[in-house]
Structure formats: structure tokens, C-alpha cells
Design a protein that fits this description.
- By secondary structure, the protein is of the alpha/beta class.
- The protein is built from 16 helices and 14 strands.
- The chain has helices spanning 28-42, 45-59, 69-75, 93-106, 120-132, 142-147, 149-157, 172-185, 203-211, 213-226, 242-248, 277-280, 318-325, 336-350, 356-364, 388-393, and strands spanning 14-15, 18-19, 65-67, 78-83, 111-116, 136-141, 161-165, 190-192, 233-238, 258-266, 282-286, 289-293, 329-335, 375-380.
- It has a 6-stranded mixed beta sheet, sandwiched between helices. A 4-stranded parallel beta sheet has the order 7-6-5-8, sandwiched between helices. A two-stranded antiparallel ribbon has the order 1-2.
- The protein is globular and about 55 Å long.
- The relative contact order is 0.15.
- The mean pLDDT is 96.
- The structure holds pyridoxal-5'-phosphate.
- Pyridoxal-5'-phosphate is lined by residues 91, 93, 120, 196, 237-244, 310-311, 355, 357-358, 381-382.
Length: 404
């Protein structure tokens, strides 16, 4: 039998050779239960009604699809920006946390845990826990707790308990290990809200589905604006991969649509100071998933480095690892200075200050060539208010825009 090729997950939880669920024995029952439950619940009418109402009235969806006139002229294409920066809490992450907390409630869970690096996912989780009156514990590397002070205060104000993690490098991967440890101790009553398309199956698929509202809206919005429901190019940044997964979800098997992913090159993909996992990583297992991982020759996980805290992850979602290895997606590595410059450019040309993460997607435009008729949709995953200090401290990277 010839099965239709798909870039979505298979029934075993794999994307090609990537994915799966590599978990400690003690979590087996919990993850199996989640695997059995997530699709029937997410696809139920009751869930969809609550989820869509919250996305509309609480998050503020649909997010606009904005025609960027000046940047379109500059790049010689029709550039549309998918404005996830306009969501409540300022990024796409809330689409996922709302969905997962609804799922947790329907599964009878009483307690929420999460890991966070920069604190963005921690804030999105603490937000929905306040909304749903659920106790919330967020694990964060002690170094990140120091570096991301404002987000820590936001989480606390929202009622979450932030637990600083002092093992390892005291950053995201250590926080993730600690969250998994907590989950192992409380598998019955606790729901672990993962913030990206990473972790053991079914998380990558579950998060991709909860973010797929982005491409569902893009389809409708393009149809309304242009009379055709697909673009020539989709462009998104990738940390773990959730905003990209949401952007491409309904187009991933549509060969008319080119997929462009921008990962964080840091100081350069070959410098060792990078978060460009697809360029610099090797096959390994990280946080329950078989995927590309940045590691030393003897298999130690390397610390990711990027000016953007939200892209600072030494792994990548299994879906994206497969898209890259099958050449379904074109992946650019965008360095710190290129991202900062692109952020200034978007700020001055469109009056939109993007998140540093999103600025990596913007910078990818410079590496591409277009026909004037090409329709390009670029997802602005978040707003840049949180990054203004970094932008100002790095004015010297902004070229002609830095003279102020
Ligand atoms: C967290 C974050 C990202 C990176 O995460 P993905 O799962 O790859 O989307 C990108 N942009 C913003 C604004 C973020 O907060």
C-alpha cells in the first residue's frame, strides 16, 4: 500500500526518525494516559467551544494578518505579518497554555508544573493558572531567575511559585530536568505544561495542534484578502518550534508552500557560541525525544547561546528536525547582529517592535530572493517590549538605524 507522505506525526509518535517518548518507567502510565486522552478531548465539541471562546475573548484572536507595505517594497514581494505579538501576554505561547490547562482540567488534574528559560512560558502558564484557579509551580534555572527578573515578578504576582534550580548550568535544561523529576514524584495529580513542540510524544503533536490556530487563521485571512488560501512562503523563527509549527501546520503537506525556518545562530553557527541546533546538532535524546541536539563529541549537552533568551535551547522539536532532514523546510541560521538589525528595521519601517526571537525570522528575509508576485507570510511571534533594553544596549549592531 502506498501511504500518502505526511510531515505530521505518525501513530507511533515519530516524524521520520525523530520523536518518540523516551521517559523513565515511573512516568509510563501517565504519558500513556495522556496519549490516549489528548485527541478525543481536544477534538470534542465541548473542548473546542471553551477553547475557541477563550482564544477570542481572552487572548484576542483572530490575530491580524497585516500587509507590511514598506517592507514589501524593500524586499520585492507581498509581505504579510501574522501578528501574534498582539495576543494577551504578548506572544503566541498563550495559545498553547490555554489549551493544555483545559485539557488538564478535563483529565481531573489538580496541580500544574512548568519549566521556563526566559520566563515567557512561565508567565503564560502562570496566567492561565490564575484564570483557572489552579496551583502552579514553575521551575527556572537560578541564573535565569536573576537575568529575567521582571518575568519572575510577573509570575509571582500571578500567584505562581517560582523554584530556582541550582544544578548544572542553572539554565533551561536544568529547569526541565527538575520539572520532570517533580512530575515523576506526582504523576497522578500533576499536569506538566510543556511550552514548545518538544518533549516526549504526545507533547510535540499536542502543542503543534494547539498552535495550529495560527495557520487556520492565515488560510481564512489570505482567502479574504487575496482570493487564494495559501502563500508562496511561510517564515517563522524556531526555538523549540511551536510558533513555527502553528504557522505551517495546515500547509505542511502542501508542496505549493515553501517553509522557511530561522534558528538562532548566536555569534555564528560554527563558533560554538550558538543555538543553531539544526546546523550544529547531532542525533541524540533530549527531554524524552529523539531529535537533533547540540552536544560535545562525548555526548554532553552543550549550553545554547543566543542574544534571544527564548531561542536559547540546545534541542529542536522532532517535527522540525524531520522537515530539515527531508528538505521540506529551508533553515537559515541568523546571527545576533542580523536579528538586532532586522528588529530596528521593522521598528522604523512598520512601527512594530518585534520580540528578539521574531526578529530572527525578519532577518531571514535578507537571505531570500523573491518574485514581485510572491506572497510571504511571516509570523511575528511576540512583541519586543521585553527586549527594549537589549536593543538599546546593542544599537551598534543596528547599522543606519542605530544613529540616535
Ligand atoms: C518562546 C518564544 C519563541 C520560541 O519558541 P518556539 O516554541 O520556537 O515558538 C519565539 N518567539 C517568542 C516571542 C517566544 O516567546
Amino acid at each position: 500500500m502506498n501511504e500518502k507522505k505526511t510531515f505530521l506525526v505518525d501513530e507511533k509518535g515519530y516524524y521520520g526518525e525523530f520523536g518518540g517518548a523516551y521517559i523513565p518507567e515511573i512516568l509510563y502510565g501517565t504519558v500513556e494516559n495522556l496519549k490516549r486522552s489528548y485527541l478525543p478531548i481536544i477534538e470534542s465539541e465541548e473542548f473546542q467551544k471553551e477553547y475557541m471562546e477563550l482564544l477570542r475573548d481572552y487572548v484576542g484572536r483572530p490575530s491580524p494578518l497585516y500587509y507590511a507595505r514598506r517592507m514589501s517594497e524593500k524586499y520585492g514581494c507581498k509581505l504579510y505579518l501574522k501578528r501574534e505579538d498582539l495576543n494577551h501576554t504578548g506572544a503566541h505561547k498563550i495559545n498553547n497554555t490555554i489549551g493544555q490547562i483545559l485539557l488538564a482540567k478535563k483529565m481531573g488534574k489538580k496541580r500544574i508544573i512548568a519549566e521556563t528559560g526566559a520566563g515567557q512560558h512561565g508567565v503564560a502558564t502562570a496566567t492561565v493558572c490564575a484564570l483557572m484557579d489552579m496551583p502552579c509551580v514553575v521551575y527556572q534555572g537560578a541564573l535565569d531567575v536573576e537575568r529575567q527578573h521582571t518575568n519572575v515578578e510577573r509570575m509571582k504576582m500571578l500567584g505562581a511559585e517560582v523554584r530556582p534550580v541550582r544544578t548544572g548550568n542553572m539554565t533551561l535544561k536544568d529547569a526541565t530536568n527538575e520539572a520532570i523529576r517533580d512530575w515523576c514524584c506526582h504523576p497522578q495529580d500533576t499536569f506538566y505544561i510543556i511550552g514548545s513542540t518538544v518533549g516526549p510524544h504526545p507533547y510535540p503533536d499536542m502543542v503543534a495542534r494547539l498552535q495550529s490556530i495560527i495557520s487556520k487563521e492565515i488560510k481564512q485571512q489570505l482567502q479574504e484578502k487575496l482570493g487564494r488560501d495559501y502563500p508562496d512562503y511561510l517564515v517563522a523563527c524556531v526555538g523549540g518550534g511551536s510558533n513555527a509549527a502553528g504557522t505551517i501546520y495546515h500547509y505542511v503537506d502542501d508542496e505549493r508552500v515553501n517553509i522557511v525556518l530561522a534558528e538562532a545562530g548566536g555569534q555564528g553557527a560554527d563558533t560554538g557560541h550558538t543555538a543553531a541546533t539544526i546546523h550544529a546538532g547531532r542525533l541524540g535524546i533530549l527531554h524524552g525525544s529523539r531529535t537533533l541536539v547540540m552536544q560535545t563529541p562525548d555526548g554532553q549537552i552543550m549550553e545554547a547561546e543566543s542574544i534571544s533568551a527564548g531561542l536559547d535551547y540546545p534541542g529542536i522539536g522532532p517535527m522540525h528536525a524531520n522537515l530539515a532532514s527531508q528538505h521540506r523546510a529551508t533553515v537559515y541560521s541568523v546571527n545576533d547582529d542580523e536579528a538586532v538589525k532586522a528588529a530596528y528595521e521593522m521598528t522604523r519601517m512598520e512601527g512594530i517592535i518585534p520580540a528578539l526571537e521574531s526578529a530572527h525570522a525578519v532577518a531571514a528575509l535578507q537571505k531570500m530572493t523573491f518574485k514581485p508576485t510572491d506572497v510571504v507570510v511571516l509570523t511575528v511571534s511576540g512583541r519586543g517590549d521585553k527586549d527594549v533594553e537589549t536593543y538599546l544596549n546593542n544599537k551598534h549592531m543596528a547599522g543606519e538605524y542605530g544613529n540616535f
